[in-house]
Amino acid sequence: MVSSGTRAAALVGLISAVAAPFAGHLAGVIGDGDETKIFLSSALVCVCSTLLIYITVLRNNVAKIGSNVYLAFFSFFTFACMCDLWLGLAIDKIHPLFNFYLTNGEPYLNTAHGSGLNWWDACAHFLLYLRFIQAMIDGKCHDQEVLFWIGSICGSLMIMVPAV
Fold first, then answer.
1. Higher model confidence: residue 32 or residue 161?
2. Is there a smaller number of Cβ atoms within 10 Å at the N or the C end of the chain?
3. Long-range contacts (CB closer than 8 Å, 24 or more residues apart) made by 152-159
4. Residue ranges of the domains in the chain?
5. Cβ–Cβ under 8 Å, residues 95 and 86
6. 72 with 15: CB under 8 angstroms?
7. Which of 1, 114, 12 is nearest to 59 (CA)?
8. How far apart are CA 129 and CA 99, in angstroms?
């Protein structure tokens, strides 16, 4: 039997995975090189996907460990991880969906370090966020994963902050 935390984490992952390419497409079409329009269209999709996640998944699931604010926080960042996946695909010239962002948004990501950080965030952090959601709803201990996540975020920041 699949636990409610596992089901919730899977739905959060699915909604984030669908919302990120939609945000990229919308920002590319509406933005047309204008940073304000790109930001607003991406922010709109991000807020809508977070609200959709809350309405469909988190409203009926209460965190047994932590709080529902943390569930919303981790749900929000699953969307960011999926955007990082599409950025990684654009940097490595696999798919051009987020090319506009590399030229208009954060061009320093178009480096080897930026590519590595995007792929790491898209894979490791995405899975960690889903694990946190699953563990918090099911009431399971996830201390080791939290420590790994903190170290990973700090390591990413040590590389990314000097690049900015």
1. 161
2. N
3. 152/120, 152/124, 152/125, 152/128, 153/125, 156/117, 156/120, 156/121, 159/113, 159/117
4. 4-163
5. yes
6. no
7. 12
8. 26
| Secondary structure string (H, E, C) spanning 40-97 | HHHHHHHHHHHHHHHHHHHCCCCCCCCCHHHHHHHHHHHHHHHHHHHHHHHHCCCCCC
pLDDT value for 128: 97
The tens digit of pLDDT for each residue in 28-55 reads 788 777 778 888 888 888 889 988 998 9
Contacts of 65 (CB under 8 A, 6+ apart): 135, 136, 139, 140, 141, 142
Look at 33 and 73; give whichever has higher pLDDT: 73
Give per-residue pLDDT as tens, 111-145: 888 899 999 999 999 999 999 999 999 999 999 99
Other CB atoms within 10 Å distance of the CB of residue 138:
18
Q: Quick one: which H or E segment has residue 21?
A: helix 4-31
Are the beta carbons of 61 and 5 closer than 8 angstroms? yes
Global confidence as pTM? 0.91
What is the predicted pLDDT for the residue at 17?
Answer: 93
- Other Cβ atoms less than 10 A from the Cβ of 26: the count is 16
Q: Which residue has the tokens 């990120």?
A: 20
Calculate the alpha carbon distances from 96 to 15, 76, 89 in Å. 21, 24, 7
